[in-house]
Structures are given as structure tokens and as C-alpha cells.
């Protein structure tokens, strides 16, 4: 999510740090900062805003030093502000750290440290790490890092500086990227290759649990027990643009492949270790408060709206509260019947979509309680809503939303489980079953992404079609909506999603020989009926691509082709079934030579009505 750089050598650190950070800024960040060691002290300069704001701040006041770290922040804990920007230090300023990721247990650690007399300046989880370093300093920098790593839980890449032991940077990672660049008499650290390729192409990638001690002439890697690890050095041969995309041809594809991580980050800290409860520490609802809510409105646009449609099924089926889903631009003008007994949930990746923001204001004006589900901390929607739940998808650059959607689905599922748990409409056994399944999702998605050849073939074969249809019932219908939008948006193929049972009420007239029809059949409760609808289109000579769960032989008998998702719970199927639809859209767009990341007429953030 955030960008990290580190330098140690004979040259001034700041020019490299700023240059490296600018190479990471393409993802869009909200604040930036640097820390440089000089003559026994670490000087920190940081501020909210783009990197340019930091550059202006440093103009004529460039801290000197040949060892430093830098950070571009994408806020997770604590809104974007000067004080929440990284690097963070302990109270003495001797231990400084930059961090990418989420420290899951930071609140407990912070309270312990406060009880020991530590004072915190920021709202971040990261500041806790710097204070832990000073509290538990053993007289040995490396040992202390290991000790602190034993205390923190979550996902991170971290780079540490210690004024007591200059001449070395220590870095480590868990579930977040970190690379080391090797130079002559200088070495580099970065969260992403683009930050260092102007300086060196000799790199190695850090693996989870590894701790690297980086001096100007040496890099020493070990595990937490001190066992040395030898790393394979490789030469990066990508150009700068390819490096920004992590070697992927497009940001969209990169973001599709980031989904396992986005899911892991989003579920982090929200599933009880005992697997029997969902935890939303950011929500302070009580069962009594929830009893007062007799209706939920979900309001959003585009892909986020489609996540809302899935959310309706989840909440109604699990929490047994009636839900209406509205397109934000319609909501405001339809005189919705909404009051203090209603909860309005708005969903927005960017947190800046004007239609959604205005709908949120309207719901508030009418007295409803409001909750935002968004990916951008401190965004307008996050600020406007009474409560916020963040998706931790990381910056999404491609116009076509992918990882934001799947994390929104995950949040909607977790929210419905949470509400159901408070309202006593779900058994502990069922919660456990779902939580165990949710934990498996990132790995299952990862496996699906390793095997996309079949999807590429279908995309090439049917990419020249001018129309396509997506059918499904229940949750499959909700996912079909997103599949059709993805295909339209980037390949410009006319695509429609229909509730499978609705087709015969008019649209069946459009089903002619050779038209591709994607039929989702993952929902056991409506499976037989979906197969009947499949047969209706088959009888009109459509080409049917079925999407079903592994082992579904019946689907294979009826469809022309089948794409299987791993066997999973019916509520988890949407999180997996959308993967082949995203990839079909992506490869169809490639076949047609479309500009995948910047489709015609569209913008990433829609701030006009
Ligand atoms: O940032 P938001 O989630 O509020 O954006 C809403 C839509 O504009 C967005 O999802 C749009 O539909 C995407 N381009 C779809 O891929």
C-alpha cells in the first residue's frame, strides 16, 4: 500500500530517497516523509500531501546525511495528516521506522506502552513499533528488532534506523513486498522495484520472516532465530514503466493478481482467533442499537453498487433485515422513505464519487444512521459518514475496479455476519463454518490465478463477438451484473446481465446462434432452476460458458465449456466466481486491442454528477 525507500552509502541520501519515492507515487499517495541520520541524530521531515509538498518543504533546508529512509503513505490507521505521516520515532527520536501494512494488535501494545509512560503523537499503528524499539532496546539493534517482531501481529514491511547504532539499516517483511538493491559502496531498500532501478538492477526479493541488516558495503540476511539465509540475486531487465506494473502488462492485471493479498489485509483483525465471531473494532454498535434499525439502504455506483447487490443477499439472508439497494444518482431524487430507524451503507472505492457522497448527505439529512465502506482513508465519504469500515485493497489504479470489488464483497459478508451475530440470527456453528471458509479464500484465489490458460482461450475465441449475456440466480445474478460491466467497460463488447429466470420475459429474443452466454451456477438453492435456464439458451444455439464449483459434472454436460471455481460455501462463491469474469474481460479487451487501463470515455474517480 505505502511506498518505502532506504539508502545507505557515501552519497547524500535525500536525492535518492526523493527520486525513489517519486517512482512509487504513480499509485497516488496522501503524505510523504524522510528521515536522515547525521552526527548522532536522526532528522525527520514529513508532511501531508503529494511528494511535491515535501520537496517544497525541503527546499533550502535539505537535511544532510548518507543514511536515510523515506515513505509515501496510503493511510490505513489515522487520516492523512502531517503527524500521521511516516517516518515515526519513539519519544527520544533515536528509533525511527517506516512501515507498509497493518499492525493488527497495535491498540493493545499502545495501551501497555502508555501504561509504562510512553506518549504518542499520532493515530497510527506504526508509531507503536518505534516505541517498542526504545522500550525493549537490549543494547543490540538487531536483537531488539527480533524481540519487537515477536510482539507484533499483522502484515508489514518495516525499515528501522537507530541513532545509537548508525551505519546500518534493518528491514524485514511479512505479507508485504520489500526488495534490496545492491550497489557499489551503497545499498538500497524499497517496497517496489521502480524505486531503485535508476540506481541498480542487481536486486533480491525479501521473503516473509527474513531480516536484512544493510550496511553500505554488505547485506546480511537471517531469520528470527539468527540462522543465516543466502539470497539469490537477480538482474531486473524491465524498463521503468513495466517495473511500475510489477512486470504485468497492465495495472488491471496486476490488481487482479493482488486480490489474495487485498483479501488477507481486509480480513486481518476482523476474524476472531477462535473462528467463532466477526470483530469490527471500529464499530461501536450494541445489540440494543441494532434493534432500532428496521431497514438498511445500500447506496453506491458502478462496481460498488454491484457489491451492494451482493450485500443485500447477505444481510437479508443472514441478519434478516430488509435491504434496499440503490444506484446513488437515483437515490437522491426518488424521495426515499428513510428515517432514524434506517441505516444507510454507502460503498465507494475512491470515497470521492460525487453521486455517492451526495446520496450520503441526503440520507443524513433525512435522519438515517450512516456507514461508509471505502478504500481511501480520510476521503470525503469517509469523513462525511457517521462510521467507516475500510477495505484494505491498496491503491487501485486501473479504471476497471477489481480488487476493490472483491474486498467490498468481503466487507459486506463480514458486516452481515457481524449484524447477524449481534441480532442472534446466526448460529455459532454457521459463523465458524463461514470463517474457516473465508480464511481459505486468498489461497484458493491464488491457485485460480495460477491457471488462466483456459480463460485466455475463451477470450480469444469469443472476443470478436459483439454481444454477450451473463446469467445467474440469487448471488450468481449479483455477480453476473459485475461480469457484464467489466466486459463492457474495457472490451466495448455489448454485455447484459440477467436474472436467469427473467430472460424468457423478453430478452430471450436476442439469443441467437453463436452468442456467448456466461451462466453462473454456483448457488445450490437455485441450481436446478439455473440449469433449466441454461437449457433455454442452449436450445437457441447460444454458446454457453458455465461457471460452477469443482466436481459439478452436470454443468459440464449441459454447457459448451466450463470454468470451475474451488468448492466453497455458497456465500463465498461470489468472491471466487468473479475472478474468471474479470479475466475474461481483460483478455477479451487485449484480443480487441483496447486500452485496458484507460478505457474510452471513462475516469477512475467520477467527481461530477
Ligand atoms: O470509487 P467508487 O467505488 O465510488 O466508484 C464507483 C464507480 O465509478 C466505479 O466502480 C466504476 O463503475 C468502475 N470503473 C467499474 O470498474
UniProtKB/TrEMBL annotation:
<dbReference type="Pfam" id="PF01380">
    <property type="entry name" value="SIS"/>
</dbReference>
<dbReference type="GO" id="GO:0006047">
    <property type="term" value="P:UDP-N-acetylglucosamine metabolic process"/>
</dbReference>
<dbReference type="InterPro" id="IPR005855">
    <property type="entry name" value="GFAT"/>
</dbReference>
<feature type="domain" description="SIS">
    <location>
        <begin position="458"/>
        <end position="599"/>
    </location>
</feature>
<protein>
    <recommendedName>
        <fullName>Glutamine--fructose-6-phosphate aminotransferase [isomerizing]</fullName>
        <ecNumber>2.6.1.16</ecNumber>
    </recommendedName>
</protein>
<dbReference type="InterPro" id="IPR046348">
    <property type="entry name" value="SIS_dom_sf"/>
</dbReference>
<dbReference type="InterPro" id="IPR029055">
    <property type="entry name" value="Ntn_hydrolases_N"/>
</dbReference>
<keyword id="KW-0032">Aminotransferase</keyword>
<dbReference type="GO" id="GO:0004360">
    <property type="term" value="F:glutamine-fructose-6-phosphate transaminase (isomerizing) activity"/>
</dbReference>
<dbReference type="GO" id="GO:0005829">
    <property type="term" value="C:cytosol"/>
</dbReference>
<dbReference type="GO" id="GO:0006002">
    <property type="term" value="P:fructose 6-phosphate metabolic process"/>
</dbReference>
<feature type="domain" description="Glutamine amidotransferase type-2">
    <location>
        <begin position="2"/>
        <end position="217"/>
    </location>
</feature>
<dbReference type="InterPro" id="IPR017932">
    <property type="entry name" value="GATase_2_dom"/>
</dbReference>
<keyword id="KW-0808">Transferase</keyword>
<dbReference type="InterPro" id="IPR035466">
    <property type="entry name" value="GlmS/AgaS_SIS"/>
</dbReference>
<keyword id="KW-0315">Glutamine amidotransferase</keyword>
<dbReference type="Pfam" id="PF13522">
    <property type="entry name" value="GATase_6"/>
</dbReference>
<keyword id="KW-0677">Repeat</keyword>
<keyword id="KW-0963">Cytoplasm</keyword>
<feature type="domain" description="SIS">
    <location>
        <begin position="286"/>
        <end position="425"/>
    </location>
</feature>
<dbReference type="InterPro" id="IPR035490">
    <property type="entry name" value="GlmS/FrlB_SIS"/>
</dbReference>
<dbReference type="GO" id="GO:0006487">
    <property type="term" value="P:protein N-linked glycosylation"/>
</dbReference>
<dbReference type="GO" id="GO:0097367">
    <property type="term" value="F:carbohydrate derivative binding"/>
</dbReference>
<dbReference type="InterPro" id="IPR001347">
    <property type="entry name" value="SIS_dom"/>
</dbReference>
<dbReference type="InterPro" id="IPR047084">
    <property type="entry name" value="GFAT_N"/>
</dbReference>
Amino acid at each position: 500500500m505505502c511506498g518505502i525507500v532506504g539508502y545507505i552509502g557515501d552519497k547524500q541520501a535525500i536525492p535518492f530517497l526523493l527520486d525513489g519515492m517519486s517512482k512509487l507515487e504513480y499509485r497516488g499517495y496522501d503524505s510523504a516523509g524522510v528521515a536522515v541520520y547525521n552526527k548522532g541524530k536522526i532528522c525527520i521531515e514529513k508532511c501531508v500531501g503529494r511528494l511535491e509538498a515535501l520537496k517544497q518543504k525541503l527546499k533550502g533546508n535539505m537535511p544532510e546525511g548518507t543514511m536515510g529512509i523515506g515513505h509515501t503513505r496510503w493511510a490505513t490507521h489515522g487520516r492523512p495528516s502531517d503527524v500521521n505521516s511516516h517516518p515515526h520515532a519513539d519519544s527520544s527520536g533515536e528509533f525511527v521506522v517506516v512501515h507498509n501494512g497493518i499492525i493488527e494488535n497495535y491498540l493493545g501494545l499502545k495501551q501497555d506502552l502508555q501504561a509504562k509512560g510512553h506518549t504518542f503523537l499520532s493515530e497510527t499503528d506504526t508509531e507503536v513499533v518505534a516505541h517498542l524499539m526504545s522500550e525493549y532496546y537490549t543494547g543490540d539493534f538487531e536483537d531488539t528488532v527480533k524481540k519487537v517482531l515477536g510482539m507484533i501481529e499483522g502484515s508489514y514491511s518495516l525499515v528501522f534506523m537507530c541513532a545509537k547504532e548508525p551505519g546500518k539499516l534493518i528491514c524485514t517483511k511479512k505479507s508485504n513486498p520489500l526488495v534490496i538493491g545492491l550497489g557499489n559502496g551503497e545499498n538500497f531498500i524499497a517496497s517496489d522495484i521502480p524505486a531503485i532501478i535508476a540506481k541498480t538492477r542487481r536486486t533480491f526479493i525479501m521473503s516473509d520472516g527474513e531480516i536484512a541488516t544493510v550496511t553500505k558495503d554488505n547485506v546480511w540476511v537471517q531469520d528470527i532465530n539468527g540462522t543465516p539465509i543466502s539470497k539469490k540475486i537477480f538482474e531486473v531487465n524491465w524498463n521503468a514503466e513495466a517495473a511500475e506494473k510489477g512486470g504485468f502488462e497492465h495495472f488491471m492485471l496486476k490488481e487482479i493478481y493482488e486480490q489474495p493479498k487485498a483479501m488477507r489485509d481486509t480480513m486481518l483483525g476482523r476474524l476472531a482467533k477462535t473462528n467463532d465471531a466477526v470483530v469490527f473494532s471500529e464499530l461501536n454498535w450494541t445489540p440494543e442499537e441494532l434493534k432500532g434499525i428496521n431497514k438498511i439502504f445500500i447506496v453506491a455506483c458502478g462496481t460498488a453498487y454491484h457489491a451492494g447487490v451482493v450485500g443485500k443477499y447477505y444481510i437479508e439472508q443472514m441478519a434478516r433485515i430488509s435491504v434496499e439497494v440503490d444506484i446513488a444518482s437515483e437515490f437522491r431524487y426518488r424521495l426515499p422513505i428513510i428515517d432514524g430507524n434506517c441505516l444507510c451503507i454507502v460503498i465507494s472505492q475512491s470515497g470521492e464519487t460525487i453521486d455517492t457522497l451526495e446520496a450520503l448527505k441526503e440520507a443524513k439529512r433525512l435522519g438515517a444512521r450512516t456507514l461508509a465502506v471505502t478504500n481511501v482513508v480520510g476521503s470525503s465519504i469517509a469523513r462525511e459518514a457517521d462510521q467507516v469500515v475500510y477495505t484494505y485493497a491498496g491503491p487501485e489504479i486501473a479504471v476497471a475496479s477489481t480488487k476493490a470489488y472483491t474486498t467490498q464483497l468481503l466487507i459486506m459478508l463480514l458486516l452481515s455476519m457481524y449484524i447477524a451475530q449481534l441480532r442472534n440470527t446466526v448460529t455459532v456453528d454457521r459463523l465458524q463454518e463461514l470463517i474457516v471458509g473465508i480464511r481459505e479464500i486468498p489461497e484458493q484465489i491464488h491457485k485460480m490465478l495460477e491457471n488462466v490458460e483456459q480463460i485466455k482461450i475463451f477470450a480469444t475465441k469469443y472476443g470478436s463477438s459483439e454481444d454477450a449475456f451473463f446469467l445467474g440466480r440469487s448471488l450468481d445474478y449479483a455477480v453476473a451484473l459485475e461480469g457484464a460491466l467489466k466486459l463492457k467497460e474495457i472490451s466495448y463488447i455489448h454485455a447484459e446481465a440477467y436474472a436467469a429466470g427473467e430472460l424468457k420475459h423478453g430478452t430471450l429474443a436476442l439469443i441467437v446462434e453463436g452468442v456467448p452466454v456466461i451462466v453462473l451456477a454456483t448457488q445450490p438453492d437455485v441450481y436446478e432452476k439455473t440449469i433449466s435456464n441454461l437449457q433455454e439458451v442452449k436450445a437457441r444455439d447460444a454458446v454457453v460458458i458455465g461457471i460452477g464449483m469443482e466436481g459439478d459434472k452436470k454443468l459440464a454436460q449441459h454447457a459448451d465449456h466450463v470454468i470451475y471455481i474451488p468448492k466453497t460455501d455458497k456465500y463465498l462463491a461470489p468472491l471466487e466466481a468473479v475472478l474468471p469474469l474479470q479475466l475474461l474481460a481483460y483478455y477479451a479487451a487485449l484480443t480487441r486491442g483496447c486500452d485496458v487501463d484507460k478505457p474510452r470515455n471513462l475516469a477512475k474517480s467520477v467527481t461530477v454528477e
